[in-house]
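User: Structure please.
Assistant: Input sequence and predicted structure:
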Amino acid sequence: MQKLRPLALALMLGLGYGNSAQAQDWPSEPIKIIVGFSAGSSIDSVARIVGENLTKSLGQPVVVENRTGANGMLAATAVAQAESDGHTILFSNSSSITVNPTLFNDIQYQPLEDFEPVTKVVATPFILVTNPENERTAGVTDVASLVELAREKPDELSYGSAGIGNLIHIATELLSQQADVKMTHIPYKGAAPMEVGLLGGEIDLAFDTPAGVPQIEAGKLTALAVSGPDRWPGLPDTPTMMEAGYPDFDVTFWTGVFVPDGTDPAIVKALYDAIVAATEDPATREKLEMQGRPVVPTPEEFRAQIAEETEVAAQTIEAAGIVVEQ
């Protein structure tokens, strides 16, 4: 018996035969994944891991193309303007989708208008950390003591970020607003130099990425909390911000999948199913878990989450008065 393409099988089982010929033939040519960040970055790694799996499951080559610049906006704009035939896919991060539309006036895409969200692939929390060798935060052992110190010394504690408007910046401003404290922002050109600044005593605290776990394990950084809804497997004794007394605090950076607006819903469903299957493949899942927690909400759930996160980001940016020079 001839093997059916995943979409053709889905059409026969649940969607009927009334869909377009284009949808029934998908994928009919190589699929291009466009990534707005450099090769070797976390989002690029996720795209290549999933792309390798999709090449096998969909029967067409899946290639990754890096179009770097403008915090992912160049790549997103390219996909927004691409043919809506399911052969051009965007792998993007939460910052490019939920923060950029609020920060940049000259943005060339609107995420929930120009894209069909397919799903997230991995979600990763930030880790709120201090330097135990820093005399200014010597008495800090948890979020409560950090907040108490910040209240005693308004604007004296400094925090780092990976750049103005970066999601790390937004996360720390959200903490400041929810805890009603004032701290001084020191932007860096990326999370790695930010961590170096923290280790060197240039700043007092930061929401670091899980890349900082080795420094935590070595005792060079102290983990106070993780920013997501669940504890991080590598730090089982570190509470979430919710557990630390901030029930509305949930900030993760994720890698998500998008196709141009107008893409046939049957193609979106088939792509979603293929990505779910990829995350369930033991070898692929093991690789993905090195980048974050695999999580694959439905397209509808993902769309709702993007709308909610965008609103939170916009409110946080407005309250903090964050402005990016353009």
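Residues 8 and 55 are 17 Å apart (CA to CA).
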